[in-house]
Design a protein that fits this description.
The complex is a heterodimer of chains A (about 270) and B (about 250). By secondary structure, chain A is α/β, with parallel strands linked by helices. Chain A is built from nine helices and eleven strands. Chain B folds into two domains: about 210 residues, MetI-like fold; about 30 residues. Classes of the chains: A alpha/beta (about 270), B mainly alpha (about 250).
Chain lengths: ~270, ~250
């Protein structure tokens, strides 16, 4: 499968359903162009383009090693692409350009883009409240009381306020991931990235996390989700992207999962669903 | 039971204050050295994990000083280093410096493995929140690494206290020196050195207990009586936060 089939992309709708009434096309919030990334001698992304619009929910799926997590992590510069353009809210962060170069800019980007990890990555030495309040105290330099109030509000939003004084080790996987979501939301990001948020969870805990993501989606948050949960993707996804071997093999708007033409895509969907 | 009858054990009680003072001096030297070597050791560990010329210097330092015995170190510092640097150290200062030179190397290795044990995702999560790398290190990585390092640092501390016994050669008035002095007047080495050994054992026991309490204090979730006292305060603060939130929204 070295030479992938040419990208079959269905045309994007001019407006996502949430913005039917706006006359203008929703602004492009994230724009990736020609992203290439290698780890050592292994090229993982062979020049990928992706754009995300305001309020859109983009779902990226595909087999392991297809580069989907790497692509997601390029958006908040946890992976620095070897080549290509990373444009978020109109500001260029890609390689070679002085503007996106120094550490400071990456920090600014990450304050507008929140991320939720597969392994939760909660800070084990802090309580749930402490986890959510940390960013507020260090980046927004809030005083402790104010930060804790904001953190408590964020925890209440995901329904975990009564667990605020507990440590991550005392929480179930689903609760930990919801705290992680609250933590990412504490800085009021404009885009949320999810890197296989339910892949490390017991099946019965997956639902509570998807529920939190669903309410986030309903509130109009721009989301880019890498996941294997294709039923969930079908429910909230505005634009689906199937990646294979470091390239986008096929992509399309709502209903894509039932309408895809690439046999590889069909094979993958049949295996997962 | 000849052991008890034929020896003058009352000597120990008679000279208890001198012996205890000697132990106190040993503990003071070791404690000061502990604080400084932990700081230096951490810096060395960071240098070791850093970039080219600095990391080599750190490696050389660590490998050299892990091999030097305390006795050699303290003589070298007291008589040699003071000449090189031009400052004449007191015996206390020389003792501290000698211990720091050695134990910062060990602690550097302890911290290096502790830092390596922290999953990469911790740093990524901190950075992904837009936190600057320095506070990510200080507030996320370092607390976790220190928790891992504490038991080993405790063992190092016991080693430091024992190494102070060699400082008698430069005249520091610690346990062995006191025992030697007493022995030269009373000629009861068995009794006196048994007492000295017992002092070291008690000190080691105490330090072990101290560090185990510290570990329990730092454990999350908190375990042990002291830690639970702290968590009661935390819960009170949390209740205040929740009260403010509920009064703001007007709902339970």
């Amino acid at each position: 499968m070295r030479t992938p089939l040419p990208t079959m992309n269905e045309p994007r709708p001019t407006a996502s359903p949430a913005l039917e009434h706006s006359a203008a096309r929703p602004e492009q919030v994230v724009q990736l162009e020609g992203i290439r990334k290698s780890f050592g001698k292994n090229e993982v992304l062979h020049g990928v383009d992706l754009s995300v619009h305001q309020g859109e929910h983009v779902v990226i799926f595909g087999p392991s090693g297809s580069g989907k997590s790497t692509l997601l992590r390029t958006i908040n510069l946890l992976e620095e692409p070897d080549a290509g353009s990373v444009r978020v809210f109109g500001v260029e962060y890609g390689p070679g350009l002085r503007k996106g170069g120094p550490r400071g800019s990456a920090m600014e980007l990450r304050r507008q883009v929140g991320m939720v990890f597969q392994q939760f990555n909660l800070f084990p030495h802090l309580t749930a409240l402490g986890n959510v309040a940390l960013a507020l105290r260090t980046t927004k330099h809030m005083r402790r009381n104010e930060a804790e109030d904001r953190a408590a509000r964020a925890l209440k939003q995901v329904g975990l306020l009564r667990w605020a004084a507990h440590y991550p080790a005392e929480l179930s996987g689903g609760q930990q991931q919801r705290v992680a979501i609250a933590r990412a939301l504490s800085l009021d990001p404009k885009v949320m990235l999810f890197d296989e948020p339910t892949s490390a969870l017991d099946p019965e805990l997956v639902g509570e996390v998807l529920g939190a993501m669903r309410s986030l989606a309903e509130s109009g948050m721009t989301m880019v989700i890498v996941t294997h949960e294709l039923n969930f993707a079908r429910e909230i996804g505005d634009y689906m992207v199937f990646m294979d071997h470091g390239l986008i093999a096929e992509s399309g708007p709502r209903g894509f999962l039932d309408r895809c033409e690439n046999p590889r895509t069909q094979q993958f969907i049949a295996a997962v669903l | 039971m000849n052991l008890v009858a034929n020896y003058d054990w009352s000597l120990v009680w008679e000279h208890r204050s001198e012996l205890l003072h000697g132990m106190l001096t040993a503990l003071e030297v070791a404690a000061v050295a502990l604080v400084i070597s932990t700081a230096v050791g951490l810096l060395l560990a960071l240098a070791r994990m850093g970039k080219a010329p600095l990391s080599w210097l750190a490696v050389i330092y660590i490998n050299v000083f892990r091999g030097v015995p305390a006795l050699v170190s303290v003589i070298w510092v007291y008589f040699g280093l003071s000449l090189i640097v031009g400052i004449s150290f007191s015996v206390f200062q020389a003792g501290v410096i000698a211990l720091v030179l050695l134990y910062s190397a060990f602690i550097a290795e302890i911290y290096r493995s502790a830092l390596g044990a922290i999953p990469r995702g911790q740093r990524e999560a901190g950075l992904a929140l837009g936190i600057h790398p320095v506070p990510v290190f200080a507030r996320v990585i370092l607390p976790q690494a220190t928790k891992i390092a504490i038991p080993n640092i405790g063992s190092m501390f016991i080693g430091m206290v024992k190494d102070t016994s060699t400082f008698t050669v430069i005249g520091l008035l610690e346990v062995v020196r006191v025992t030697q002095n007493l022995n030269s007047t009373t000629f009861q080495p068995f009794v006196l050195y048994t007492a000295a050994a017992a002092l070291y054992v008690v000190a080691a026991f105490g330090i072990d207990l101290l560090f185990r309490t510290i570990e329990k204090l730092l454990a999350t979730p908190p375990s042990g009586r002291v830690a639970r006292a702290f968590s009661r305060r935390r819960r009170k603060r949390l209740e205040a936060v929740m009260l403010r939130l509920e009064s703001a929204s007007g709902r339970t």
